[in-house]
Specification:
Blueprint lengths: L13 H37 L7 H14 L5 E3 L8 E3 L4 H19 L12 H23 L8 H23 L8 H31 L1 H11 L3 H13 L1 H13 L3 E3 L4 E3 L2 E3 L17 E2 L2 H4 L3 H17 L5 H26 L11 E2 L2 H27 L35 E6 L6 E6 L26 E3 L5 E3 L39 E3 L9
Length: 537
Amino acid sequence: MTSVTHVTEPHPLVQGGRSAALATACVRGAVAAGLGLGALAVLVIAAWISSPYPDSGPAGALHVAAGIWLLAHGVDLVRTDTLSGLPAPLGVVPLLLVALPVWLVHRAARDTLDPGGDAVRPRPSPGGAVGAVAGGYLLVAAGVVVYSESGPLPADLVTAGLWLPAVVTGAAGTGVWTALGRPLPKQRQAAAALRAAGLGTLTLLAGGAVAAAVSLAWHAGRTQASLEGLAGEWSGRVTVLLLVLALLPNTAVWGAAYGLGPGFTLGTGALATPLGLVGDPAVPPFPLFAALPAEGRGTWVHWATAAVPLVAATLQGRLVGRAARTWAAREAVLAAFGAAWGCGAAVAVLAGAAGGPLGTGRLSAFGPVWWQAGAATVLWGVCVGVPVAWGVRAWGRRVPRSERPGPERVPAPAPAASAPASAPAASAPAPVPAPAAPSTGASVGVSVTVGVPVAASPGPVDAAVPEVAGGEEPRTGPDPDGGDVPHPAPHPAPRPAPHPAPRPAPYADLFGDDPGFEPYDYLPAAWEAPPPPPPTD
């Protein structure tokens, strides 16, 4: 009887593993929401405990923390405890607070796709990771929105339904993009445009921050007076300073919008631009508002802020031009246009988040207008960035003067050296005698008359041929009987011809393909037989 045993290898449950990965990603999103809410709640509770005159109990502080957490996601709040008794909107988002929830969602999505040390762990697809993390986060956010409705700062349901999912999904998408290695579009023009748009946006924000810092330092006295007027105790001043710190990125965006040209509004009917401050600004007492320009026409100090967008557009175009050295001119121009539009879109989003209403009436419009700031950014990028990109590309494609192919020069033949008339005849080349070669029966002497230098000597030669200086007597050769037999005098030699000039370049390659070719620069010598020796006894 034969028994058959089936050996099965362990096979992971793919579907079950994928479902578990999605559930884990959802939990990660919920934990990220809880961490952000808990961090803000700790700060609010600490401020409430340190306040000498708390207005409400711990429940009120938690409601305020929930409202601030929603405000950090771009959700407008509604203030119910106003002097008039009418609800007033609060839509200015402290951009520094946005960094905390965005970073938490980003990290949760990144860790969902990053295997770490466990490469076997099942992972969801990129789209599944974004949906799961954002879904878990939004579940917690929905509960916070419901909880805030019973507090002093309830959330506006319209903006909660628009901005809250957009911010969370965008942060989760950047986390997945980071986990995948931050890939850029395969089209080189789109990738260069995205890099240039990011560089231009960062330059605008940095320039706006510098302009705001200089203005704050210039009006340091008013800033200090505003801080002391808002709070007398150290706990209140610390709270105001924390709020100022959270609004510093907003100040950078305001400074960038001011340098771009459209400026920002200070209530309905009041506008601050480099050309001057128009209208009657309705600003509450706050340290950051002390840096606003004075009323009246602008001066060269205010006009100097236009250098911020100029530098940003120049750097943006330079980056595109350096990347487009090998591209066609049309591709470079299109990439520069794309960079201008990308930077304009980023600035429009930031300007919309940095401003908003602070109340009703004149405070219903406060901060930069998003579409004006975006349009001005695009205009700077087109008018400055596109020509700079084209110029940098043209400069990168130039050929240095030292490497330019010029006309080929043919060397002129060297002039022949003319001998003076009084030169002695001894300057002519002298005959070179050859030693007698042994032969059968007799010794034969060979006399060589040289007209030009000898390149090769035919026949067997047993010894080196000595040179004979001009003007000397011809040497004598040995005689078989022991006497000296003089050689005959050489014929007068012609004047040596100059070496031929090198072949011009057009004919230099006529014999270049023959590896055994050697230029024959020497003429053969004239060989003459010597007179027979005298008879011997």
